[in-house]
Design goal:
Elements: H1 5-42, H2 46-50, E1 53-54, E2 61-62, E3 73-78, H3 83-99, E4 104-109, H4 114-124, E5 129-132, H5 134-140, E6 147-151, E7 157-162, H6 172-177
Parallel strand pairs: 3-4, 4-5
Antiparallel strand pairs: 1-2, 3-6, 6-7
């Protein structure tokens, strides 16, 4: 069966339209499943608290659980090559400065070297604890960057977020930083 030449362009437009709809559908479905997979991999968060992370600017390893008890703890996986990660760190820094400067942020760089991490820390003046999160990120197979896991002062999981599209993504942190349950 041959397609008449006068119907070829409309036929191709219909096929292109169907392809666009399918791409959008499957992309949204994939993004939704990423959030679900991230929540499953975070679980109750305890594995992330007990993990040892090599420190960038201090000798030895850092264990997030050692910082629980007094203040909220936020574990942020990020990378210098991710623009969204930079925005996430800036937003997190603003929120902590405004609501709870004593909150602890462990900034786990993924697939970055110490030079890039030091440069970012110095440029922005972040009071974060910088660690190498590459191994843990790969072991747990976190689905994207930035990935944030927040803990109450007692070490219980407060919440988590995958990705960063704008300040509204981290609005849930305001309650934690203000000391609300």
């Amino acid at each position: 069966m041959r397609l008449d030449q006068k119907y070829f362009i409309p036929f191709m437009l219909v096929v292109a339209g169907i392809c666009v709809v399918l791409i959008v559908f499957f992309n949204l479905r994939f993004m939704g499943s990423q959030q679900q997979r991230f929540a499953e991999r975070v679980g109750d968060g305890q594995a992330h608290l007990e993990q040892l992370y090599p420190a960038f600017f201090e000798a030895g390893d850092i264990r997030p659980a050692d910082f629980t008890g007094e203040q909220p703890l936020i574990l942020l996986f990020w990378s210098s090559w991710s623009g969204r990660s930079d925005e996430a760190q800036q937003d997190l820094f603003r929120r902590i400065s405004a609501h709870n400067p004593q909150a602890v942020v462990i900034s786990a760089a993924v697939k970055d070297n110490a030079e890039f991490v030091r440069e970012i820390a110095e440029i922005h003046g972040y009071p974060f604890i910088f660690v190498d999160g590459t191994e843990h990120y790969n072991d747990v197979r976190l689905p994207g960057l930035p990935s944030l896991i927040a803990f109450r002062a007692d070490g219980s999981l407060f919440g988590s977020r995958l990705g960063f599209t704008g300040a509204a993504d981290y609005d849930f942190l305001d309650a934690l930083l203000k000391g609300q349950p």
